[in-house]
């Protein structure tokens, strides 16, 4: 009887162990950066609509000017309080500044923190966003060591770049903070794009070896890159309107499906010290290049995704004139089709909105020249055709 009891117990313990090992990892929580300098109604609406899916806000509270001094950013304390989410203050220090007065910065940060504490908000940390040059990481570690005691127990986090993985000074930096946000978007040459899923996963795995609690920052936005006549980057903008004279511009986008693939893989298996995801940045209805709020929330909540950009023809006011329209029938932002073909039987045609037109032996060919995203349910006119009868369209799957 005793032997049978111990045998049954051993089998039961083994079964419990296997069941625990086969359990999927806990869902990764999501934070979001509020990086807007103006707290307009569209931002407040996005906060209200997404607060249920977000663990905490990371709010841009101040950024350094050209002299290296911190300039506070206006915020809406009432909106933050109403959202019911804790707040991490983020201080952005320009990584391109040649010199920094670290003592002055430390004093300004403690003053800023005192001002925010007076609002009565639930503050859960201070984060420093500093794209520090790898050669200066040792000095950065010293600065963090001096700053931490002044926070009176408030957790200190920093953003980190994959380029720091090559530095011997990185362990000293990590040892001075409570948490790290690893940025895996917009960290390489703009010509290489904003985000690449496989590369991001490699950086995550490498960073996890340091056994430091960290989160990963993922993009929900696009940018416009301007190149001068010499081919050098002259401007990087996300929401600024207008164009620069004498600058060749290129649109960079990150499609939600690409980021969702990384998230799905992390949900199935991720490093034990990966604590969650931080989104840059919270989308609003006014954004020109960010994902739609509805599409972003579907990605955050792990819902089924479908991007379905479909070319359609709409009859114009003139008989025989057809507008070429793109409609996203999916539930998440979709990339624009690279090519749309119409028959050569059409007499005239022209392209619009980032497409060019060529007449090939196969017919009229609309070719995408600028990347872009189409929100769910949205339409975009990309050209027109004059034909005796409604033409048929062909396009490759995206």
Q: Which helices and strands appear, and what pairs or packs with what?
A:
Layout: H1 2-22, E1 30-34, H2 41-50, E2 57-64, E3 70-72, H3 77-83, E4 87-93, H4 102-117, E5 123-130, H5 137-147, E6 156-160, H6 170-174, E7 179-183, H7 197-208, E8 214-219, E9 223-227, E10 233-237, E11 248-252, H8 256-268, E12 274-280, H9 293-300, E13 309-315, E14 321-328, E15 334-335, E16 339-342, E17 348-351, E18 355-360, E19 363-368, E20 373-374, E21 379-386
Parallel strand pairs: 1-2, 1-12, 2-4, 4-5, 5-6, 6-7, 7-8, 8-12
Antiparallel strand pairs: 2-3, 9-10, 9-11, 13-14, 14-21, 15-20, 16-19, 17-21, 18-19
Sheet with most strands: 8 strands, parallel, barrel
Q: Could you give the count of β-strands?
A: 21
Integer average pLDDT: 89
Taken as a percent bin, the fraction of beta residues is: 25-35%
User: In terms of structural class, how would the helical and strand content be classed?
Assistant: alpha/beta
> What is the molecular shape?
elongated
At the first level of CATH, the class of the largest domain is Alpha Beta
Number of helices: 9
- The percent range for helix content is 25-40%
Enumerate the strands of the largest sheet in spatial order, edge to edge or round the barrel. Answer: 1-2-4-5-6-7-8-12
Overall CATH architecture of the largest domain = Alpha-Beta Barrel
Number of domains as seen in the coordinates: 2
* Secondary-structure element order, N to C: HEHEEHEHEHEHEHEEEEHEHEEEEEEEEE
**Parts with pLDDT < 50 across at least 5 consecutive residues:** 8-23
Any idea what the radius of gyration is?
A: 25 Å
Q: In the CATH scheme, what's the topology name of the largest domain?
A: TIM Barrel
């Amino acid at each position: 009887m005793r032997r049978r009891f111990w045998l049954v117990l051993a089998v039961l313990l083994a079964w419990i162990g296997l069941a625990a090992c086969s359990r999927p990892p806990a869902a990764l929580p999501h934070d979001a950066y509020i990086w807007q300098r103006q707290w307009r109604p569209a931002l407040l609406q996005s906060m209200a609509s997404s607060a249920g899916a977000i663990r905490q806000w990371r709010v841009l509270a101040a950024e350094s000017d050209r002299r290296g001094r911190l300039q506070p950013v206006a915020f809406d304390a009432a909106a933050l309080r109403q959202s019911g989410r804790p707040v991490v203050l983020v201080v952005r220090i320009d990584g391109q500044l040649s010199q920094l007065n670290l003592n002055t910065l430390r004093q300004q940060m403690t003053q800023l923190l005192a001002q925010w504490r007076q609002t009565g908000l639930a503050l859960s940390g201070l984060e420093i966003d500093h794209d520090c040059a790898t050669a200066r990481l040792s000095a950065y570690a010293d600065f963090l060591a001096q700053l931490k005691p002044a926070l009176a127990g408030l957790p200190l986090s920093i953003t980190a770049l994959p380029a720091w993985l090559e530095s011997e000074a990185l362990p000293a930096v990590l040892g001075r903070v409570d948490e790290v946000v690893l940025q895996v978007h917009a960290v390489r040459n703009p010509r290489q794009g904003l985000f690449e899923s496989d590369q991001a996963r490699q950086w995550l795995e490498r960073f996890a070896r340091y056994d430091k609690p960290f989160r990963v920052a993922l993009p929900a936005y696009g940018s416009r890159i301007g190149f001068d006549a010499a081919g050098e980057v002259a401007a990087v903008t996300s929401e600024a309107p207008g164009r620069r004279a004498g600058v060749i511009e290129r649109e960079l986008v990150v499609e939600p499906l690409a980021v969702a693939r990384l998230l799905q893989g992390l949900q199935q298996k991720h490093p034990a010290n990966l604590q969650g995801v931080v989104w840059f940045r919270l989308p609003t209805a006014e954004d020109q290049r960010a994902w739609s709020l509805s599409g972003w929330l579907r990605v955050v909540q792990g819902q089924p995704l479908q991007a379905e950009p479909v070319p359609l023809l709409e009859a114009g006011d003139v008989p025989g004139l057809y507008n070429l329209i793109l409609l996203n029938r999916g539930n998440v932002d979709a990339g624009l089709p690279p090519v749309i073909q119409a028959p050569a039987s059409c007499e005239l045609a022209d392209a619009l909105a980032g497409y060019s037109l060529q007449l090939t032996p196969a017919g009229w060919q609309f070719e995408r020249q600028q990347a872009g995203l189409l929100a769910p349910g949205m339409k975009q006119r990309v050209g027109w055709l004059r034909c005796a009868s409604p033409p048929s369209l062909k396009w490759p799957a995206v």
